[in-house]
Amino acid sequence: MFAVHLVSFLFTKLQEDPTKKVDRFLYAMRLHDDQLKDISARFQAEMKKGLSAESNAAAAVKMLPTHVRSTPDGTEKGQFVALDLGGSKFKVLQVKVREGMGIRRGGVEMEEKIYPIPKELLSGRGTELFDHVSESLKDFLHEKNISLEKKHPLAFTFSFPCEHSKLDQGLLVNWSKNYRVRGLQGKDVVKTLREAIDRTGGMNVEVLAMVNDTVATMMTCGFDDQYCDVGLIIGTGTNACYMEGLRNVDLVEGDEGRMCINTEWGGFGDDGALNDYITEFDREVDAASNNPGKQIFEKMVSGMYLGELVRLVVLKMAKRGKLFDGQVSDALRTTGKITTAHVAAMEQYKTGLNNTRDILTELDLNPSPDDCVAVQHISTIVSFRSSNLVAAGLAAILSRIKRNRNLRTLRITVGVDGTVYKTHPQYPKRLHKVVRRLLPECHVRFVLSDSGSSKGAALVTAVAQRLASLRQQVDETLCPFKLSQEQLQLVKARMRAGLEAGLKTKGSSAIKMLPSYVYRTPDGTEHGKYLALDLGGTNFRAMMVNFKRQNARLYHKIYTIPLEIMQGTGEELFDHIAQCVSDFLDYMGMKNAHLPAGFTFSFPCEQTAIDTGTLVSWTKGYKATDCEGHDVVSMLREAIKRRNVSQKFHKDVTEMSLDEVKNNATVPPICKQKTVCSYLQEFDLDIVAVVNDTVGTMMSCAYEDPQCEIGLIAGTGTNVCYMEEVKNIEKTKELIGKPDKEEQEEDKQDDRTEREKKEVDAELSKMCINTEWGGLGDDGSLDDIITPYDMEVNQNSINPGRQRFEKLTSGMYLGEIVRQVLLDLTRGGLLFRGHVTETLKTPGIFETKYLSQIESDRLALLQVRSILQQLGLKGTCDDSIIVKEVEDLTLCHTV
Ligand code: BG6
Ligand code: GLC
Ligand code: GLC
């Protein structure tokens, strides 16, 4: 027994292990991990090249944008016909997609028929090929009794590189694999198909989308798995697609959201990038192919070439006497005699060796058992190299996605299809293992798309159809916000007429045109310390301004005005302001300084002098009682006086109990709040001017730029003021020529020359007018551009019917307009899956700060989504796109 073992050991030693000699012969095809990492890095560089606008034209890996922007979300539905051209089989299908069930639960039903393509058509004229395609389609519709009464949306899987400018248009870049059809390169394939369908006639179909097989595969798998962001084909050809951040896709405008990129990785190496990995067998395969020098990576990897690579290796080894005792058959010399199906059979578990023997015998060879082991091993090395190369490419894509998303670990699904992956017994396992070894930090799931691409193509079409109808409805809703040039001209004319009417004494105007008694803008020589109070913007502000020749220093403090004070009594409001002023003077340590104070009061006031202003009516969020028709300067003075009076009671009050304070009739109301009284101190103000915020703005800017003659506010409210010729201001005619008393006194006293006096007169020839343009439209003149959403916002405001222009444009109302539109779109089922949440029903959720964030172009949709989420509005990516659009348009409307 021992002797037998010894002999057989010696015998095998002498004979040499047949796999070893193959290993030696094919050492260049056995890639270890360092080489794979190197290839992966090279592919990453190629992807970058293909994505960049500058290098795309010269890039071997074309990275074609597909215009597929989202993976399915399960809500797709509909019935489609589908064409699948470019794989090993040409198929026509009917696909029915039911909503919300997914593929595994039977959400997609399909019927298909394979139509052989006569070989001559693969190198014939484009029209002939497409006539065959459309005739097959007609035959299918007929055979399956698909009614021609209604139009059928058609999904087209076309497994060749196309440059898309939209989903239903794609220019063929070049043919690959076994196609070499004439007259189509650079032409729109969808158009070619439509024309062929028209030529065939008798069909009612509409080609809605054309997609690459990789994209269709990703979509098919994505219907059940939301992590599926990569599509991979290892079939007759090989290719991969993935979801890329649009900001990285130079060839498509916009930088928000994602887009599927068809890498066309088959072309990797066409520029020599893989030359050091290419063997003599690869060169031979390439030289004998339809497209020498092209699709180098594909030729090392895909089903159309694997069998041929094996044949060339076997032939060469046989010729060298390393196989079959040097015997070579004619069959072995013949191109295409070993196919990928043979390779798969030779590597079959258990039966592989027998299959190998049968295959070789079929080729008129007479293989020994060692020959069979060796040839099987050749197959293994060739197909292993293929899965290794695919793993390297895939690792590059996955690490790019991981980096794009700034993740430490990535969870992702890859949808896979293709005859090699589906039929080769070891291929999937090997591929998965190597990918996981190259990328230990990624959790990669591979999902086989076992029923072909057409489901995915139908889903793309369904998404396109859903988005098209959604878009139409959203567009219709938003249409009234899009103002044409003509409409803008009309608004301009009405504004102008309103401004002119407002200057007249007779007749009414919705625009008040209030004289401000500011005759000149500063010239930068002003100096001194002033106290400035600013009421009517988002907050109340107290400021100390120190003008020192072209240089103003500013200290300020901001106080919020609670809603109940804005809308309480006038006395409470002005007491509150007096209290803020007191606090500010304390803060500045200037309680006893008697400073001149300017009061910016951002509401319409009738003025007869610079230091008096009668409030015409509240606007924006204010409606404190007993103020309209009163001089606001006096009201502020009185509030200060009240504090000073109450000061007398301060001491007593702090010593009284709260009940005693409340019941004591001599204690002024302000002092009844013990806490308030506890920090009262005496102060006085010399209010020298009351101005509107527009006027204040113009004055501050004019201090820097003497040309400034207009002040514009686009804030909580909106308004404008400008320097008007006094002669045009009819309202103040009676006052013209007699400026205020002080000035007359000064005029009398000073001994200025006539010229100087003329100059002064010239200076007094203009006066700043506070237009109060927010009131445009209060007489109905904007009714034709006011949308139902604006009406709703107006009705819910505290001053219905007033400030119509302001309500179309200013910060206080924009958020509400957006909310009304979103509510309407949601009620119509176009947003948030039709779910109207309590949050969405809550007035004021969209503050202007959110709007400006959402509108910012650089902000990714994911952030829009997160803002919506913060607001309790959970939405999909599509929802975010629509929300952003609503906001863009409402703001655009404003401008
Ligand atoms: C199929 C698709 O499932 O996979 C084809 O329907 C695609 O369109 C194919 O081209 C790729 O595999 P193969 O092996 O048929 O080229
Ligand atoms: C070829 C085609 C490509 C396709 C792939 C798989 O590489 O160029 O578009 O995806 O084959 O079918
Ligand atoms: C409102 C006020 C106006 C102010 C504007 C901007 O329109 O009526 O006086 O200028 O808001 O704050």
UniProtKB/TrEMBL annotation:
A GO BP entry: intracellular glucose homeostasis
Pathway it works in: Carbohydrate degradation; glycolysis; D-glyceraldehyde 3-phosphate and glycerone phosphate from D-glucose: step 1/4; Carbohydrate metabolism; hexose metabolism
One Pfam family it belongs to: Hexokinase_1
Catalytic function, reaction form: a D-hexose + ATP = a D-hexose 6-phosphate + ADP + H(+); D-glucose + ATP = D-glucose 6-phosphate + ADP + H(+); D-fructose + ATP = D-fructose 6-phosphate + ADP + H(+)
Coiled coil: none
Domain Hexokinase N-terminal span(s) in chain numbering: 22-222, 474-703
Origin: domain of life: Eukaryota
One annotated GO molecular function: glucokinase activity
EC number(s) on file: 2.7.1.1
Residue stretches making up the Hexokinase C-terminal domain: 230-463, 709-888
Chain spans, region Disordered: 733-760
Keywords, alphabetical: ATP-binding, Glycolysis, Kinase, Nucleotide-binding, Transferase
Biased composition (Basic and acidic residues): 749-760
Cellular component, GO annotation: cytosol; mitochondrion
Catalytic EC class: transferase
Family recorded in the similarity comment: Belongs to the hexokinase family.
Protein name in UniProt: hexokinase
UniProt organism field: Sparus aurata
Underlying gene: HKDC1
